[in-house]
Amino acid sequence: MNIILLGAPFSGKGTLAKKLNSEFNLVQISTGDLFRENIKNGTKVGLLAKQYMDKGELVPDSVTVTMLEERLKKNDCKNGVIFDGFPRTIEQAKMLDKIAKVDAVIELDVPFDIIRRRCLGRRVCSKCGEIYNTSTYSKTTCAKCGSPLFQRDDDNLETVNNRLEVYKKMTAPLINFYTDRLFTVDGNQNPEIVFESVKNFLKKE
Ligand code: AP5
Ligand code: MG
Predict the structure, then answer these.
(1) Of all atoms in ligand 1, which is nearest to the CA of residue 121?
(2) 187 lines ligand 1 (CB under 6 A)
(3) Cβ burial, residue 168 (10 Å; 0-12/13-18/19+)
(4) Which of 65, 80, 121, 203 has the fewest CB within 10 Å, making it most exposed?
(5) How many of the other CB atoms lie within 10 Å of CB of 41?
């Protein structure tokens, strides 16, 4: 089973993906995480991606799709993939259609004023990637592995506002593109409730 998680920045894609991974034995592929890994390793792709990510713009489709295709060749994708933050343009969706069967698209629906409240409080574990928010978790180390938490470079108000604009313009049209496979969930609920409703939907599929 291959699933797409579709939603604005901070809608909870990463949080939900981690819960779905273990329930359905799927592998989470976040193109954002792949770019951040490339930046950390100082690769050519990383250097290029950083210029776009710092401004909250999308990395060009050709670069993103090539990176994704490489990732999909790995063995761990055999049982199915959760695409987190990919596709983000109609062009990317058309390219994905050529290389993988998409069974379901989960749209996380969260009003932008709620997103703005979430955005500056996000903290991520530097080792295991667990996601927190200072509104519900005040420690500076991960509850799961004890490693330090950090704030992402692109989690600043200026970049976030642009990311939201880019979402509206470039990514929201995918809701109509995938209308035959779409399940929309209210992402402004407790993460456990969001997970339960998506889990129940996928189990019926
Ligand atoms: P990416 O890393 O994908 O960022 P994003 O889409 O902006 O989404 P986020 O990771 O910020 O949010 P999320 O939805 O995962 O929310 P999370 O679970 O963390 O992309 C970054 C950049 O890379 C892009 O701007 C672009 O430049 C580039 N890029 C990536 N993919 C690309 C592509 N396909 N094409 C081109 N460029 C690409 O949760 C957020 C916060 O909310 C956390 O604090 C969490 O604890 C909290 N939270 C989560 N769920 C809930 C809930 N239900 N209730 C209350 N709080 C919640
Ligand atoms: Mg994410």
Answers:
(1) 44
(2) yes
(3) exposed
(4) 203
(5) 9
Is residue 7 in contact with ligand 1, taking CB distance under 6 Å?
yes
Q: Looking at the whole model, is its pTM more than 0.85? A: yes
CATH of domain 3-26+79-204: 3.40.50.300
Contacts of 155 (CB under 8 A, 6+ apart): 119, 120, 122
- Among 83, 122, 124, 185, which residue has the most ligand 1 atoms within 8 Å of its CB, making it the best to mutate? 122
What integer is the mean pLDDT of 12-20? 97
Contacts of 189 (CB under 8 A, 6+ apart): none
- Which positions are annotated as active-site residues? 13, 88, 122, 152, 163
* CA-proximal residue: ligand 1, atom 2 (nearest): 32
pLDDT digits (tens, 9 = 90+) for 36-57: 999 999 999 999 999 999 999 9
Side by side, the strands of the sheet bearing 122-125 are 131-133, 122-125, 149-150
Domains of the chain: which residue ranges? 3-26+79-204
Side-chain-side CA neighbours of 61 within 13 Å: the count stands at 12
Q: What is the dihedral sign for C-alpha 35, 154, 91, 6?
A: positive
Pick the closest to residue 4 from 128, 119, 118, 92 (CA basis).
Answer: 92
Place of tokens 């209308």: 179
Report strand pairing: 81-84 vs 27-30.
parallel
